[in-house]
Amino acid sequence: MIRPLPLFIGVRYTRARRRNGFVSFISASSMLGIAVGVMALITVLSVMNGFEKELRERILGMVSHATVQGGADGLEDWQALLPTLDQRPAVIGAAPFVNGEVMLTRGSAVTGALARGIDPEREPAVSRIANNLVSGQLSDLSDGAYHIILGNRLAAELGVGRGDAVNLITPEVRVSAAGILPRLRRFEVVGTFEVDMAQYDSSLALIHLADAQRLQRLGDAVTGIRLEFDDLMAAPQRVRTIAGELPGRYRVSDWTMQHRNFFRAVAMEKTVMFIILMLIVGVAAFNIVSTLVMAVQDKRSDIAILRTLGARPATVMGIFIIQGSLLGIVGTLIGTGAGVALALNVETIVPAIEQLFNVQFLSGDIYLISDLPSDLRGGDVWRISLSAIGLSLLATLYPAWRAARTAPAEALRHE
Fold first, then answer.
1. Alpha carbons 370 and 385: distance in angstroms, whole number
2. Staple 138 to which of 97, 120, 210, 299, CB 3.0 to 4.6 Å?
3. pLDDT band at 11, cuts 50/70/90?
4. How do residues 261-277 score in pLDDT, each as one tens digit?
5. pTM metric for this prediction
6. Are residues 52 and 144 in the same domain?
């Protein structure tokens, strides 16, 4: 015989029309269960990968890859340090900044915000804020003009638009003849931005670096220097190199230090989600056990005849391993195809469902990201598919072993 006997009979048993309809139902349900589990797992991990990618890009688009800061009085020698950092081979951008917590008021509207002083010419090299401007441009921020660019939600909360004025109040106070008064300055709104993250759209305001220095009374000092590297993932290593080569005492940090717990939590959630959804595949694999146990009982006479014709126990065992594995492989292929198709089109399907039923699954007021991104990765697809096939193969071992132990005489006694 050209084909191996276990493969030939195992495939034939799988394709044959069963006399026991319940066995056929269990076979179909186990295959469907594996397909649904694999599809759900691929889709969910792709969406979680999409969330992680979007969050990383949006967060790092605002906080930069690394920062170099001075002491409590700020970074005083930044003008001499900036060219040194900017000329390093791995650094593609460097820009000074000044951070300060302030209050913004407009009539009866009052809200807290983070005022960030930036250099309009250098800022595009270390952030993507210029690409997210809804109105105005960074060049509208000029020294001494006291112009301000607000996040779109922050502007909406204050009820202001381009050309309106807002009052900026710093936590420092000044003593005058009228008593102790907070330091206040009127700014003109020259633009708004939107990065689709409530953390920044509702609390960040951009002003010119020199204006921020005057407000914070820093003189010529700044809070620090922001750096952008050519390789995001190499930032920790390059920060350590920079810290070891810089003269003097500086506080150097990278994005993994600032957001380590957040991205670690995302990675842990992906792992836990993989384990939980893999249980769906595991339940379907247990259905394969039930299918094969009933198939072995149904084929006892066939097994006995094969044994009397000289088939070895390993041959009988191989027949049912192949039969069960085929159920798992077919279910995995169906689930993989459906999961890949769904993951590639989830960004289109979800908005269509939201529009059809007039609902919003992710409210921008609650979640960091209001849309549902997807990032399909080939490594995840292979890992899920091979895990599903492995579980299916594992589920066939016990029923196949029981089939191999069938005694021919006992099985044919009542035939």
1. 30
2. 120
3. low
4. 777 777 788 888 888 88
5. 0.67
6. no
